[in-house]
Amino acid sequence: MEKQEVTFNQSDWSNEEKATTKKVTTTGILGQLFGWLLRAVLFVIATPFYIVIWTINFIKSLFGMFIMWIVGKVCLVVFSGLVEYFVMMIGLADKEMGTGWTMRLMDFLFKTNSQPAFFPYGAIEYRAIVIFALIIATFSTIYRDEL
Question: Model confidence over 66-115: pLDDT tens digits?
Fold first, then answer.
């Protein structure tokens, strides 16, 4: 039988040694022992900044929701008017029967029969706007990594 020789290069031994040993430093030991304390301190420091950012986002989203609420109502009335016009042009409805749903929608959304108002159902609409603004402000403040 023949003898088989096995040889190892020095680079193989050095790579194995580097892979198995960990470098122990003082910051690593302190990080392991006081990691929870460091996270708590960072949380206490960061909380006022998050509150300020959330407040700014809430004001922006509240302003945007008021504008979008009014624009959405106007777009709904315009779209309804276009649909009503095309229904009348095609002849799917009589002129007496088909006319008026846009006016009824506009009366409902803006109370044009008494006095025009952008928010005729104030308590309901304001609450809906504030709830949507709270949701938008919260989701725009939370970073995607934290979800």
Answer: 999 989 988 988 898 888 888 877 777 666 655 677 777 887 788 766 67
Residue ranges per structural domain of the chain:
46-146
Secondary structure of 2-28 as H, E, C letters: CCCCCCCCHHHHHHHHHHHCCCCCHHH
Dihedral angle computed from the Cα positions of residues 66, 67, 72 and 77, in that order, rounded to the nearest 10 degrees: 100
Cα separation, 78 vs 81, in Å, equals 5
| Cα–Cα distance for residue pair 60/132, rounded to 1 Å | 12
Are the C-beta atoms of 55 and 138 separated by less than 8 Å? no
How far apart, in whole angstroms, are the C-alpha atoms of residue 20 and residue 60? 53
Closest CA to 54 of 133, 114, 117, 118: 133
Q: Which of 58, 56, 55 is nearest to 66 (CA)?
A: 58
Amino acid present at 81: G
The answer to whether residues 104 and 97 touch, using CB atoms and an 8 Å cutoff, is no
Dist. CA 82–CA 98, nearest whole Å: 13
